[in-house]
Amino acid sequence: MGFCLGWGGAWAFELPVSLTPDSEDDLIIGDRWDRVPKGQKGYVRRGDLAKMPTAKTVLDRIWPTADAVKMTVVPMADVVKTLGAPEGMDGVVLKCADRWESWLPFHLIKDHDPYLLIYYEGRSPTDKEGWPSFLGIEDLAPYYAFVSPKRFPDFVDETPFGMISATQITELGLANEAERYAPFFAGKLANLEGPAAIGRDLFLARCNTCHQGPEEVGGNVSQRPFMILQTHAVHNSAHFRNMVADPKQFYPQTIMPRHPDFEDEHYAALIAFITATAEP
Ligand code: HEC
Question: Which residues line ligand 1 (CB under 6 A)?
């Protein structure tokens, strides 16, 4: 991939990164960043993020149908810039409290300038009134990343790997896309064609934020090892299909979404892909 954001120029500001947490309110930084030694985690304070030179208070919406409120945000691009991405890294891994994970490539950061929310109407999530919940279903806190509905009214949050908008971010990782997703494209998965290849793209875009794929790449909200998905897809494809179409019929409380846009070919593609991963 090797996409480069091409950030040049002077950037005198250095965000303080501590190697021990200061509070539960810190943003955790993975060890691939320049500013964090191998094998360790870095911790950034909310107050220091707010002091970044490009932090600003905007009148905007947390999601397209919400009311506009005053929010203090910092451009994700500048967070990347101050933390330092070594040569070859080409995206950020958004890691969330419930083990949801999404891949945010640098080119999407460049095109859509996502913000990291620091204060909502001047409040941090730990303040008395805290932050509102996202669509009434889940917390935004501790950190929330989003594309401004005001600046990009037509933006549709669909990427090849999950979503840009993410609630409950606890940690920013860093990776190289080809390296991170290599297990999806290696060995018996190297030459997939037709439905199996389409199924791989679908899995990456629609399932991998919550379901780990081959070699445990991806989020793990589901707490289902990939082997469970393989078993359903290969031996119990009717259940697999019913589950993906309407998970709430089996798990009324589940956060796994329904997939009303899926048709026969989507299920066939997912099953072909997962079956290919299970072939001896
Ligand atoms: C928002 C998170 C989320 C997404 C996205 C998601 N799932 Fe799930 N999935 C879950 C959770 C959580 C469970 C476990 C059920 C539970 O206890 O809620 C689960 C369980 C499953 C199971 C196991 C069912 C069983 O009976 O054990 C299958 C199969 C599955 N998901 C397939 C998929 C596929 C295929 C996709 C993509 C098209 C997908 N899921 C997208 C969260 C998600």
Answer: 206-207, 209-211, 221-222, 224, 228-229, 232, 240, 243-244, 250-251, 254-257, 259, 270
pLDDT tens digits along 123-141:
999 999 999 998 878 899 9
Q: 143, 176, 209 — which closes off a domain?
A: 176
CATH code assigned at 97 = 3.90.420.10
End residue of a domain, out of 153, 176, 199: 176
Q: Residue whose CA is closest, atom 5 of ligand 1? A: 207
Alpha-carbon distance 103 to 119, whole Å? 24
Of ligand 1's atoms, which has the minimum distance to the CA of residue 233? 29
Are 233 and 271 within 8 A, CB to CB?
A: yes
Ligand 1 atom nearest to 240, measured from its CA: 29
Q: Is-contact 144 62, C-beta < 8 A?
A: yes
Task: State the virtual CA torsion across 264, 266, 271, 273 in degrees, nearest 10.
Answer: 150
Q: Which residues lie closer than 8 Å to 47 by C-beta, 6 or more apart?
A: none
45 pLDDT band (50/70/90 cuts)? very high
pTM for the whole structure: 0.93
> Average pLDDT, stretch 214-232?
96
Domain that holds residue 53: 27-176
Instruction: Kindly tell me if the per-residue pLDDT of 145 is higher than 60.
Output: yes
Alpha carbon of 230 to ligand 1 centroid (Å): 12
Tell me, what's the pLDDT at 162? 87
